[in-house]
Amino acid sequence: MKPEKVVNQTPVLNQRPKNEELRKQKLTSIALYSILILLAAVCLFPFYLMIMYSTHTNADIASTFLVLPGTNLIDNFTRMTENVNIFRGFMNSLIIAGGSTALTIYFGGMTAYGFSKFKFKFNTPLFLFMLATMMIPAQLSLIGSYRWLGMIGLLDSHAAIILPAAANTFAVFFIKQFIDGSVPNEILESARIDGAGELRIFHRIILPMIIPALAAIGIFTFIGSWNNFIGPLVLLFSEDKYPLPVLVAMIQGYYNTDYGLMYLGVALSVVPIIIVFSILSRRIMGSVAIGAVKG
Predict the structure, then answer these.
(1) Comparing 12 with 82, which gets the higher pLDDT?
(2) How far from 96 is each of 51, 147, 224, CA to CA, in Å?
(3) What is the C-alpha end-to-end distance of the chain, expressed in Å?
(4) pLDDT tens readout for residues 87-126
(5) I need a surface site. Which of 137, 190, 200, 252 has the fewest CB within 10 A?
């Protein structure tokens, strides 16, 4: 007689614990995603109401709670443009935010490159002093900015808002950390041996290598400049040069009891930024993660 084969039962016995673990992981994932979706809905609900309320009349908003769109969006927009040139404000915001972002990216990257790769005297003390200025509120520097911008004749011009963006301390700090961890010194030494100057090295080697950091800081700067209110309010005097945040405040002055118009003005100012951040949020998070890794 042939001996009977003995079947190993160990895989069958181990299969149940694995199935239970997989089931627990699925339940945990479902619970986690449910909580995240709920939190996202709570965060987005005010913006949804803002957009919905901008399509209703003032009487509807004052009388009931609205969650569905109305039919007065065009009427509200027409009445708003009678006293406020919202299109001009949109262009002013685009000019200020775009110019500030370009200066921050270029000069912030150049300054960060200098602090990161040039070991000159007082390098560390100067960098620490620069970081210390981040603790000073920007509003405290408005008086000094008003004085020196007035001395050189730049008050009531977009340059008064754009030029100070060249000295963005946070941009220098952020980009320097990225260069320290992502740009090896050997590449720079090779370029210098080949006869490349420092400006050429910066433009042809450094800038392409730090694009992720520049993209992240550019988005932060654009959003901050777009939402800037106190600076343009103090440094600009002509209504045709005001950006959107200042014009939205003027809408409240013209229509202090018409909530539909005020919601529409706020929506026109906020919605573009929400769209930009939603599209580029993954790039921001990826750039921050890359900049945090050293070595």
Answers:
(1) 82
(2) 25, 20, 11
(3) 68
(4) 888 899 999 999 999 999 999 999 999 998 888 888 889 9
(5) 137
